[in-house]
């Protein structure tokens, strides 16, 4: 019987921030090392590429990891005003995240969002799929922004209700 050779899953990871290369170079290697430690192969997605170049690069990726960033999602994307404690938006990173999420949605690839990456997923999903799986009310309490999911959320692939988070 011959042994099957398996290849490590390729995980697309966008550079965390287009306007702060120092932050990106400090934080990105930690995400890449975590992917390697879990048996994957990180695929760095540079933010200065055209959409066609990004799509070509991710066509052989098996999953997406959306890392944290020093930015916040533009609140206009979820019909809100900018809060004074919200960081500036990063339109270039938002565009790349949108391409990665559309590809993941179309091809049923798993997505892990961390901090900013989860913000990106939260905002992208209802806009792209028409399904409001996560309503994100914002309130200020003790100088922090709190996000509270409802007790039931609609799955991001619109396949039904999952209880609890």
Keywords, separated by commas or semicolons:
globular, 165 residues, alpha/beta, disordered C terminus, 4-stranded parallel β-sheet, two-stranded antiparallel ribbon, Rossmann fold
Give a nutshell description of this structure:
With 165 residues, the chain is an alpha/beta fold. It has helices at residues 21-37, 51-58, 91-107, 116-129; strands spanning 10-14, 41-45, 63-66, 111-113, 138-141, 144-147, 152-154, 161-163. It has a single domain (10-129), classed as Rossmann fold (3-Layer(aba) Sandwich).
Topology:
Blueprint: E1 10-14, H1 21-37, E2 41-45, H2 51-58, E3 63-66, H3 91-107, E4 111-113, H4 116-129, E5 138-141, E6 144-147, E7 152-154, E8 161-163
Parallel strand pairs: 1-2, 1-3, 3-4
Antiparallel strand pairs: 5-6, 7-8
Helix pairs in contact: 2-3, 3-4
Could you characterize the architecture of this molecule?
The protein is α/β, with parallel strands linked by helices. The protein has a single domain (10-129), classed as Rossmann fold, CATH 3.40.50. It is 34% helix and 19% strand. It is built from four helices and eight strands, in the order E-H-E-H-E-H-E-H-E-E-E-E. The termini are far apart.
């Amino acid at each position: 019987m011959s042994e099957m050779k398996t290849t490590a899953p390729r995980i697309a990871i966008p550079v965390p921030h287009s306007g702060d290369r120092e932050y990106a170079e400090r934080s990105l290697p930690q995400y890449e090392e975590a992917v390697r430690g879990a048996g994957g192969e990180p695929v760095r997605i540079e933010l200065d590429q055209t959409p066609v170049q990004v799509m070509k690069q991710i066509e052989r990726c098996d999953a997406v990891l959306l890392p944290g960033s020093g930015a916040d999602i533009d609140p206009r994307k979820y019909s809100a005003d900018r809060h004074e404690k919200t960081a500036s938006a990063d339109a270039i990173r938002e565009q790349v995240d949108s391409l990665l999420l559309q590809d993941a949605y179309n091809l049923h690839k798993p997505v892990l969002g961390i901090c900013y990456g989860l913000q990106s997923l939260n905002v992208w999903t209802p806009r792209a799929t028409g399904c409001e799986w996560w309503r994100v009310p914002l309130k200020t309490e003790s100088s922090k922004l709190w996000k509270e999911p409802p007790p039931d959320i609609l799955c991001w692939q619109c396949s039904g209700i999952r209880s609890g988070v």
